[in-house]
Target: Cupin domain-containing protein
Amino acid sequence: MTPAEMESRIVRYGDLMPCKTAFIDAHTPGSDQKENFTIIGGGVSESPDQHVHIAEAHGFNIGAAGQPPKCRNSLHSHRTAEVFFVLSGRWRFFWGRHGTAGEVTLERGDIFNIPTDIFRGFENIGNDYGMIMAVLGGDDAGGGVIWAPQVIRDAADHGLVLAETGKLYDTKKGERLPEGVAPMPVMSDAEADAYPAPTTADVIPNYVARYWDIVALADRKPVKVIGATGMLRDKPGFEVDLITRASATEAMHRHDRQSVLMPVTGHWRVSWSANETYRAGTTTLAPGDTMSVPAGLDHSAVPSMTGEAALYHIIGTDDAAGPTWSAS
Model:
């Protein structure tokens, strides 16, 4: 076997291919300027136009959302974990049946392990285009998105209909549901009202970690941000660590499954040894780049320039991908 090139496992920020029609709210005013990205795994897009950069199953999905100021993502829910960290911009996350149960504002590097089975949305409240990176639990991301009923009703007013197959159809373009395919069932208002609506005080201490708090703890070794023993104690089917300049090491190491490197700040030099599949090599990752490291490959990651440097490291676990919300 000829050794493969590692570049095929790296998705550069500048090469990300957005989809502007990924979800049912793509035509709804206030949500119609957002861009969605599927970086690793199949994601949860409802559009056949969504480009998948790395389709290989990792036990979790990596995606992203890019939005101009005042653009919002509509209220929805997932059955598996949805974790966001802010790459750029200033973001308000809100949740509850009508998005009024609680909210939190996040900035660069902050991370939010959004509880499963609650309605949530988010908007860019900064002055420039912003990007948030996402980790979704499971290879099938829980079977897709569960929309609040008002979102589906609003979308229909603007021509978009979601089929029971999870595919979008644009009636303003003359598209119709295929014969024998029904619309996606819309939950009743009573069913939606029964969803949990935790308060801000319920959520922030257990599901939000601030970037500078994590960095302060990563002065000697990487910090486990999400995991059974993490700052945010949870077992969503993957673990998230933060590595900083102070806790990075040149020592080579390996994992028994694929892992993912996602810089938040600084430039990182990633080196790896040769094996029967991959040539030895070195590359540099910048904020917004995503690298999938193969299982069993000896590698290291260290900052390559002076200044602030931190990256998130994600690896799957054998834990179930959800649920994660608990009123306790």
User: Anything to note?
Assistant: The chain has four helices and 25 strands. The chain has two domains: 6-207, 213-316.
